[in-house]
Amino acid sequence: MLRFRLAIKNLLSAGTRTWLSASILALACLIMVMYMGVLQGWNTQAKTDAINWQFGQGEIRSPKYDPYDPFTIDDGHAVIPAGAEGEAVPILVRQASIYPQGRLQNITLQGLPKHQNLLSIPTGKFTTEKEGVIPVVIGKRMAKTANLKVGDMTTLRWRDKGGTFDAAQVLVADIFRTNVPEADMGILWLDIDKLYEMTGLRGEASYLVLSNAGYHKNVPSWNYISKETLLEPLEAMVAAESIGAYVIFFILTGLAALAIFDTQVLSIFRRQKEIGTFIALGMTRKQVVRMFTIEGTSLSFFGVILAAIVGIPFGVWLKSTGVSLGKPTEAMNINMAQTIYPVFGTSLILGTVIIIVGISALVSYLPARKIAHMEPTLALKGKIQ
Amino acid sequence: MNTITAILVAFLGWQSQPSAETIMKKVDENMTSKNQVAESKMIIKGKRGSRTITSKSWSVGDKKAMTEYLSPAREAGTKMLKLENELYIYNPSTDRTIMLSGHMLRQSVMGSDLSYEDMMEDRKLMDIYNAKVVGEETIGDRKVYVIEMEAKVEDVAYAKRKAWIDVERFVPLKEELFAKSGQLLKKTTMSDVENIDGRWFPKTVLYKDMLKDGEGTTFSLTTVKFDQDIPEYIFTKAALKK
Question: CATH says B19-240 is which class?
């Protein structure tokens, strides 16, 4: 306790030098926690959205279907396995073209049941009172690229199961907003029963989105992709973004560590008489080394306290208002909300504090080791060693 | 007596009109050759003006074809190889050959009204359609048979076609392609019919995607030679990079 009190007293007496080092440590701590908090918030939001709009509790794909290979779409469908009702939502994927304002635009038709509630696609809007018109819902990005509004009609051309062209008018019954571009870009969502009628592929699906992950065990011939596997690219994207945060964090922490190291070297050089006095009064060299190490490490505590004073109210405010990234996120075509609500987990905060305190302790201890080799008599005289 | 005469005239009229099969067979004889080497000009008319693309093509029947684009400079050197139901495109700027399939076949050829999949249909019309002559009309100063074709197989691109065939020359002068719903999808108009090596052949074809805006794409043959000696290596993927 005495050592700790002495350390604090010495630090406070150092004045500006102490507060500058502590401020850099606080800044490093704050940037790390805030940046990682925003990334964590993005990760959580992106995963939630992907589950709600796209993946459910996982997917089972018909044997020939691969969503990343457009060559497989034509043949990538099979009869929906028995017992799927209530356990999964079937989706049938077909390629087609629309002609908004007389322009040809290739799109994907995705049919899913009108009365599903697993995915957030507004399937309840698959209605129209117009005869011979197919009601569809589209995302905001799709609406923008095709220049379509709710109530607009355009010609749809598709091929049936035999490859014969057919054409009809489609009505945009609703435009939804989603953060998941994969549920939006180039897709026309429509009632699967209507798509069966259009293509002749009654009772078939390209893939099933699972509401009960365990159902896949009943259908071994379909390819099961777990929710975790489907979310891996998102995790990888956030992990890649985290590298930037680590780089900034380690640069700032490194600067602070350098300052602490320099301060320690200078202290030991200038306070040789003090060190000699401590040893003469009965302290072991180890105890003196520990005292100087505690003194250096205490800087990090000052930094953490400073970070907490500024960071806690700022973090609370940020958590409630979120970080607005503006409209460009839609144009980036990645799963990212316009406003991200940061998540400050205990492990994030504790981890950052431990790293900062650990590095400070290390850079405080390294120069303090010199004390162990000092001759107390020479130190008392203040002779340079 | 009048009734008998009317029946006789109708019967003789019916007898003098060849069946759709006969007409289409004659059209096939006229239009298809063992092989063909042609240089052509494609004029694509869009909202922002028109573009002209020239090309040279070699084809054997309907199964094999190679096209090399000659101009403009941006397209020059691009080659397209059709082998049965496979279509390969070579791009000289990337020095890559890609096989087109699925949705890529629905893309338009160089921004024209033709899609790649339009070039992939290679079966004889009479093998996939039931045809009947529904009347006679006049296009310009030419008398034509009007033939309606309805698909008799499932795997056919257009459920219904309507063709206007020159009565004397057995050359199609107009064709309309319909969706299953009856919607008119494409329209082709042939003109500049010339006698080349003993066969009547339309040298200009106007393709119009009826769902798209614009005036369509005009395809004109500048030179065409039939039954030539075409080396087999032309129709290989290796020839794309040469």
Answer: mainly beta
